Amino acid sequence: MRRLAALLAGLAVLTACGGGSTPEPAAAPVSTAVETEEFNQTDVMFLQMSVPHHRAGLEIVALAKDHRVRDEVKTLAAAIEVTQLSEVDSMTKWLVDWEQPEEAGDDPQLHAGHGGDHSTSPEAIAELAATPAGEFEKAFLNLLIAHQHNAVSIAKLEREGGVNPQAKALADRIFESRTAQIAQMLGYLD
């Protein structure tokens, strides 16, 4: 709301200064997307689940750097890394702005109301890291497919119950991109 108020105040000043008879050039279109700090518990839970989920995904894709995989798999892993680093930055910023903790807590019942814990375990990531070279790519793709499927599930929760426009837009992007990544990786397994 503070940004909207500042934008409106700035527009008022500019309008007041335009008293001459010279026609003004057409203004550039103004974005209708307004950032807001309005949020509900679903928005918070989405971010609190997504941040550690993304960080686990970053651990998974980092393994492609040190293991033998096809170039297209390395490229996909690198793209996922860049995207998820940016998304984590946004999500942690929103949680700070909303004065919410980054993590929801360790209570196993905490996630029961929305399908359980959607994270990839450290043990599964360690097992992947120890996979022999000849089996690594297939194991990598299978784990990453499952991981991204869980990201889609988390995004669905936000799409259905969140109210914050930025968080909902992120959930839409996650839903679409991870669904496409899953299809791409399934193609690599054929």
Question: Brief overview, please?
Answer:
The chain is an all-alpha fold and 190 residues long. The chain has helices spanning 2-17, 41-66, 71-97, 122-129, 133-161, 165-189.
Structural class of the secondary elements?
mainly alpha
The CATH C-level class name:
Mainly Alpha
Count up the domains: 1
What are the segments in which pLDDT stays under 50 over at least 5 consecutive residues?
1-34
- The CATH homologous superfamily: Ferritin, core subunit, four-helix bundle
Strand content: under 5%
SSE order, as H and E? Answer: HHHHHH
Give the end-to-end Cα distance, rounded to a whole number of Å: 50 Å
What would the principal axes of the Cα set say about the shape? Answer: elongated
Tally the beta strands.
Answer: 0
CATH fold category name: Ferritin
Number of helices: 6
**Mean residue pLDDT:** 82
Task: Give a structural overview.
This protein is mainly alpha-helical. It has one domain (39-189): Up-down Bundle (Ferritin), CATH 1.20.1260. The protein contains 6 helices and no strands. It is elongated.
Which secondary structure elements does this structure contain, and how are they paired or packed?
Layout (H helix, E strand, L loop, with lengths): L1 H16 L23 H26 L4 H27 L24 H8 L3 H29 L3 H25 L1
Helix pairs in contact: 2-3, 2-4, 2-5, 3-6, 4-5, 5-6
